[in-house]
Each structure stands twice: as C-alpha cells, then as structure tokens.
Design brief:
Layout lengths: L1 H4 L2 H31 L3 E2 L6 E2 L18 E8 L5 E3 L19 E8 L5 E9 L13 E9 L18 E2 L4 H7 L9 E4 L15 E2 L5 H45 L1
Parallel strand pairs: 2-3, 4-8, 6-9
Antiparallel strand pairs: 1-10, 3-5, 3-7, 4-5, 5-6, 7-9
Amino acid sequence: MLRTVLSPRMLGLHLLTVVVLVAFILLGRWQLGVFQESGKPRAAADPAPVAVTALAPVGAQMDGMSVGRRVTVSGVYDPSGQLLVVDRQPDVDAPGGKVSHDQGFWVLTPLRLGDGTLVPVVRGWTAKADAPALAVPSGEVTVAGRLRPSQGTDSVQRRSDELPRGQVQTVSTGQLVNLWSGGRIRDGYVVAEPPSGALAQVKVAPPVVGGTLTWRNLAYAANWWIFAGFAVFMWFHFVRDAMRTDREHRKKSPEMVLEG
C-alpha cells in the first residue's frame, strides 16, 4: 500500500492536490475579505462648504447626512458663555470621559449669528484650562469647519466628582440650552478648521457613508471552499482506485506464475 501511495505517479497527484487546495483556500479567503471590506463605512463625497444655517436647525435634530459636512458661519463670539469640554483629546473620534482623563480640553464658545441664534463652536484644543490661547476673538468673525451632531450627556463615562464652573463633559444641545440663556441654539456643533488663535486643531473626519455588503463575494468564497473540498474528494478517489488496482495486480501475478 505504501509503495503505491509513494509511487512517482501518485506523488505527482499529491503535489497537484496540495497546490490546488492551497490556491482554492486562498481564493476563498480573498473573496471573504472583499465581502468584509464592503460592509465598512467609507468616505463620502465632500461637497463644497455651505452656510451652517442650511444644515443645523433650531429646535430639531440635524439630518444624519449633514454629519462631517464643511460649513461656514459668521457672527460674534460670546465670551461669557465659553466652556471647556473636559477629558478630551484633539480628535473628535477619540473617546472622552474617564478614558481620556486629564488629557486636555475642547474650547467651546457660542457664536451669535445675525438672526440671534447661537452656534456652538469648538474653537480648538488646549492641554491646560488656564492657557492664554483661551482668549476669545472680538468683533465679527467668519468660521469655517465641519458640522458634528450633538453629543448625549451619557455618551462618555463621567467623572465621579463635580466639575468646576465653566466645564462640561459633552457638547450636548440639551445641556447648552440651560447654560446659554437668552438665545436659540442650533443643533450640533462646528469644529473650527483651522482652529482659533494658538489653540491646537481638533481632528474631525469628513462625511462617511455606510458600506453595502456584497453577498456575491461571500458566495464566491463558499464556492472556492467547496471546490477545495471536491479536490480532496477526487484525490481520495484516485488514491483508492490506485491502491485497489495495485492489489488486484498483486493477486493476479502469483496465479500467472503458477499457470506458466
């Protein structure tokens, strides 16, 4: 039996089967990877900037398609309403709260528009709560940046101790309504690009869209693995037939010698 399995003809079959099997498995993994990648969010088109008033309403939630859009807004900063968003890194997508404890602050300042509404603006990031860069620009300014949705007050793991006056955990429209009296607040907030003065830039991503799973690639992956299983089946079939033929030849050989 071992002589049959290790014969030159069968060794060629073994090698061919291994090559085919590895190739089919790798092709299946490749198609599976394409399927998994298709479901991941990807960057969407990044339209030209528009006025923030077109995307951030008053008394209603902004549309999900507006998240990350480039906007411009003109108005006057209200220094009396400036807040520090605690435990933040200079990246919108970085976790806040206890995970980023004492890593810095977002500088959040209300910008009053000509119609009297307020737009929360994250002017930048600072490592210290008493940095000179916190000074608020005076007069009318035009801010360019990206629009972000309001954060839930429970979106971060909060500190157990009470925050000092002028500091908050999140940029929540519902909370700002109580803190910034005397004005209607537009939903969401603008992350300034570039930042204000000497503040550091808070990184903010452009719009993204959800991926669409390409089930066809998953079917292709399954097909390649089925082919791999079929290759193993055929290998077994050929090896079994070769061993059976070899046994029959060995049985006939003694009989032929006796007849002679």
